[in-house]
């Protein structure tokens, strides 16, 4: 299982996903450009020493990611999905794709993903923090496949 951050806007959220990657041994693909300068200094500030133990791969673009990606399905977390995280059946080779905090993913990226899932939430809230959603999705995916 892998995690993918599509053009993240907020450095601390990417830092939280790097920490998630390190703690659960789930490789993290980072699709650039980011909404902040992604440098070693930024990684150290947002991800602390977890950046040193996480399995990170940076990609210049979505196209570069697709050309070099691992096998398996691309599973997009999106508020536009009809299937919920709790009803979805993960595979060990899935890559969970998280969109930008500000705009999700473009329609072309959405259409290239093999599955689309959402968190079932009550009330009128639109969505949770992207890093929190990533943690929930990775946790559920790993629970199912381990």
Provide a compact summary of the structure.
By secondary structure, this protein is of the alpha/beta class.
Characterize the structure shown.
The protein is an alpha/beta fold. It has a single domain, classed as Alpha/beta knot. Helices cover about 40% and strands about 20% of the residues. It has six helices and seven strands. Strands 3-2-1-6-4-7-5 form a seven-stranded parallel β-sheet. Helix 1 (about 10-25) links the parallel strand 1 and strand 2 (about 30). Helix 1 (about 10-25) packs across helix 2 (about 40-45) and helix 1 packs parallel to helix 6. The longest helix has 16 residues, at about 130-145. The radius of gyration is 14 Å and the shape is globular. The chain starts with a strand and ends with a helix. The model has no long low-confidence stretch (mean pLDDT about 95).
Q: How do the helices and strands follow one another from N- to C-terminus?
A: EHEHHEHEEEHEH
- In CATH terms, the superfamily is SPOUT methyltransferase, trefoil knot domain
Shape: globular
List the total number of helices: 6
Mean pLDDT: 93
Range of helix content: 25-40%
The CATH topology is Alpha/beta knot
- Stretches with pLDDT under 50, minimum 5 residues: none
Structural domain count = 1
Total beta strand runs: 7
Which strand order does the major sheet show? 3-2-1-6-4-7-5
CATH architecture: 3-Layer(aba) Sandwich
Cα-to-Cα separation, first versus last residue: 11 Å
Oligomeric state of shown chains: single chain
The percent range for strand residues is 15-25%
The description of the largest β-sheet is:
7 strands, parallel
- Class by alpha and beta content: alpha/beta
CATH class bucket: Alpha Beta
Radius of gyration: 14 Å
